[in-house]
Amino acid sequence: MHFPExxxxxxxxxxxxxxxxxxxxxxxxxxxxxxxxxxxxxxxNKPVFDLTFVFTSDEYLRQINMEHLQHDYYTDVITxxxxxxxxxxxxxxxxxxxxxxxxxxxxxxxxxxxRVMAHGLLHLAGYGDKTPEEIRTMRAKExxxxxxxxx
Length: 151
What we know:
Layout: E1 15-20, H1 30-43, E2 48-56, H2 58-69, E3 77-81, E4 87-94, H3 95-105, H4 109-124, H5 132-149
Parallel strand pairs: 1-2, 2-4
Antiparallel strand pairs: 3-4
Helix pairs in contact: 1-4, 3-4, 4-5
């Protein structure tokens, strides 16, 4: 895969945005979320160029999963990276999966949403979750960063 060259000097602007496709819910304190996400990227030594979160339903995300990854199943998050040297990508999140996972794990919706947001950002930072070791690393990092947001 070929990634474009990005302007990573001090003149580069940082963009973090949140969009809702076919769902609606309250996303509290977006400024706090953006600061938290930028702090994660900084701790991971990755500059942020453009980070877009798109919140969807199960069916919407399943369609993306089938069309782009040829996977016919529900998932909580799909990440599309556009660069290797910086955080530049789209993260699609199913709020239906987040709600179900929050209930299953006995945590709040916001806590689970933050976990999935961190998970997607960590993918953009270069972390995988295919092997048992990668999964352990990903979970440890998610837990670490969740402690910083306090939800």
